[in-house]
Amino acid sequence: MAAQLTCITTISDLPDVILSNIIAAVSDVRSRNSTSLVCRKWLVLERSTRSSLTLRGNVRDLFMLPTCFRSVTHLDLSLISPWGHPLLSPTAVADPFLIAQLLHHAFPSITSLVLYTRNPCTLRILPPLWPNLKEIKLVRWHQRPQLSAGEELNMLFTENCPKFHSLDLSNFYCWTDDIPVALESHPTVAANLTSLNLLNSSFPEGFKSDEISSITRACPNLKELRVACMFDPRYIGFVGDEGLVSIANNCPKLSVLHLADTSALSNARGDRNDEGFTQEDAKFSVSTLIEVFSGLPILEELVLDVCNNVRDTGPALEILNKKCPKLRSLKLGQFHGVSMPMESKLDGVALCEGLQSLSIRNVGDLNDMGLIAIGRGCSRLTKFEIQGCKKITMRGMRTLASLLKNTLVDVKISCCKNLGASYSLKALEPIQERIQRLHIDCVWDSVEEFEDLDGYGYGFDLNVNDGGEASSNSAGSGNTFECEEDAFMFKQQKRCKYEEVNGHANGYSGRSWDRLQSLSLWIEVGELLTPLTAAGLEDCPNLEEIKIKVEGDCRLWSKPSGREFGLSTLLYYPMLSKMHLDCGDTIGYAHTAPSGQMDLSLWERFYLFGIGNLSLTELDYWPPQDRDVNQRCLSLPAAGLLQECVTLRKLFIHGTAHEHFMMFFLRIPNLRDVQLREDYYPAPENDMSTEMRADSLSRFEAALNRRSISD
């Protein structure tokens, strides 16, 4: 019998064009690196299709600068070690012109650049080397150099980059006076700008009305504008009717407009018991909003995050829907009257049926019926955020989730008095199997407080068909609002009864959060994380990332309410590999605490205890701070607990640490990437201690790179 020849076809047999497109579609950095190790052909294809690169090496190690990424167009130099130290300066370890030429030789095709600009020499030398540069983002958390207004940006706005059209200063500390002066001094560069990001939280007061008018007048071709504003009428030059109208008149091509008060950018948490109204009203009218919306017909993304009352905005939002048909994303802060349906007739923001993302903050008069109307009218929402709305209850949020159960995958519920952790999770049961990203507050309302579904008092017939009519019928009457919720609850009743009979009842529906990949939590200082699973998040089989923000004043506590914070609770999530633990807004005593108080080192021990039990590969950690001395320093207990994370590959500490504490991390076997980032304002300037000295960081990195890594 003749031998049968078998032909095995592999992915390498594909034509180079197809294989190149496949490799180009891979976005994960480690996956791309693994791809390049398969064979030389794959190496060439991977290098030729990589368009973005972030350099993390030490500027002293110029011999290690990669020269094989000739096709890279986006280069991030803001994280080069030592972090925050000048990349190019006369006092650098190497000639700044030599470093600049080496970077240009290694990456000749750059069109997008990110720079940490602590020294003006960097702006003077580096950007002009790439004549095709189109986009630049400047980063700086340290103090501004002693230069005249606009002088620093004048070095950037040169004729050597004729294609320059995008500028991002959202993480660049400077004066608000710098921007208008520089733009007016270079009218050609300003006229070419199509994207300008000035949403910088380090601005103490934000841009005033005349400054916004000057900026928009100088940049008439802007398509994207993001600005931190001063809306508070108690300040001279606040943004009012004239400032808003000037934006629409000067920049009619805008498709993205973000206007946020500086106090909103600080992410300071409000009081859950706050009514949602401020003492002062914003000084712009509904007619002004209508005029602005009418002047921006191609608007796709709008943020108006004001920290003063904007009342009776429903009619303006109805005009927004008519005049801006392409609008897909909307965020409103301190807007009142956004949804107040009468006799089931939709109004306000509920008429913006094309929205895919909606965020509302501190809407004092929004109740359950208004929220349900939003669910009916905005039937395409994939992302929904609600913050500081006191009148919202579980019933309204649950009904909205039922109405949007086919689209909603990203939800944030924060600072709502009637929506603690358990109630928030109970409200999201209709989308429990679909949701991918979630934020809740760890306010532990008791599970026993839940009312039985039979006793909800809705007054509706639960035996109705789930026909999905509630989300599509905008002119219904009677009880159309709740038909989706009633049908879902009827099904849940039958499910719960079945589970009770079979001994599987636990107070919830019994389903898991199958698609939940990212979880964000806010928790008050001193509270424990251990009730998280009992609140309803016990089964999250695909949860990969968790972000925990701890906020409050430790000085008001003599000691925590338990021995440990409860990170061991996260062992319930088998796929968890990335964590952000943010204690940056936790305030305490960095040095010796008064009698009866704990200093921050003991609080760090409390929060980090048990972290070594988790199988984390990436960790971002913000140490707590002492604002009196502007210090965020890793303590000895924290360093000792972090070294127990034996699976870590990346560790980023957003603060400072002593050199001998950093050496603890050399005991983590597979740790590849460690960095101290003082990315908060004002970043400490004094580098005389080993916490911030460049030589100390370089010695640690050299010791880290000398180790042998198994993979």
TrEMBL record:
Q: Which SMART domains match?
A: LRR_CC
Q: Output the CDD domains linked to this UniProt entry.
A: F-box_AtTIR1-like
Cite a single Pfam family from the UniProt record. F-box_5
Task: Extract the coiled-coil ranges from the record.
Answer: none
Q: Where is the COI1 F-box domain?
A: 13-51
**Cited InterPro entries:** COI1_F-box, F-box-like_dom_sf, Leu-rich_rpt_Cys-con_subtyp, LRR_dom_sf
Q: What superkingdom heads the lineage?
A: Eukaryota
- This chain belongs to the protein called COI1 F-box domain-containing protein
Species, as recorded: Solanum tuberosum
